[in-house]
Amino acid sequence: MLQFNQVSKTYGDGPMAVKALRQVDLRVDHGEFIAITGPSGCGKSTLLHLASGLDLPSEGEVRIDDRATSNRSDDELTLMRRNRIGLIFQSFNLIPTLTALENVVLPATLSGRTFASISDKGKHLLERVGLGSRLAHFPDQLSGGEAQRVAISRALMMDPVLLLADEPTGNLDSASGMEIIALLEEFSEEPVPVDGGTQRRSTLIVTHDEAIASRAPRRIRLKDGRIL
User: Fold this and answer.
1) How confident is the model at residue 15, as a pLDDT?
2) What is the pTM of this model?
3) Which residues pair with 2 in a beta bridge?
4) What domains, with CATH codes, occur in the chain?
C-alpha cells in the first residue's frame, strides 16, 4: 500500500537547513494498523505528510499503490488524497460555517456529487460514531471528542484505503482519546470497496501517547528523523 525507499526530507538551505527525515525505509501492507511514536520534532508529522502526498521527499522515493508521489501531478495528488486517503488532524480542521453533516459529505460534494445523493451515507457515518442527533450542529456547538468524531466520519466518506491520523487524540482527555482510538480500530477492520472488489484498509496513527500506541499491532519509533 505504502513504501518509503531511502526517504529524506530537508527544510531550508545552507546552515539553517533542518533534516526532518533521514534515509527512512518503510513498508506498509494492506490492512496494517500502525502507531508512529517518538519525541517532539523527530519527524512523525513529516512522515505522515509524505505518506499523504501533501509534501514530497527531498531524497528517495515514496510510493503509494506502487507509484511514486513525485511522479504525479498536483491534480493527481489532489485526487489521490480525495479518493484514496483519509486524513485526520489534531485540530479537527472542520469548516465552522458548515454543519456536522455538511462537513462529513464535503469530500463527496467536491467530487461533483449532489448533497441529496450522498447525505444518507454521511448520516450513517455520523450515526455509527454516536452523533446521529448532532447532524445539524456546527463545530462550535460540539465538544472536542464530538468534533473529532465528525472529522473521522469525513475522512471515511470516500472509503479510503489509507487512513492517516496525526495526533488524533492530542486535544482530547484520556477517556475521549480511548473512544476515538476504539473507533479507528473498528473502522480499520472493515473491507473497503475497490474496483468491484474489496481491499483492506491501512491505518497509520502518529501519537505521543504511549497508552494509545500500545494498542497498535505494529509500532514504529522515530528519533532524530530515523526509524529506531
Assistant:
1) 87
2) 0.94
3) 28, 64
4) 2-227 (3.40.50.300)
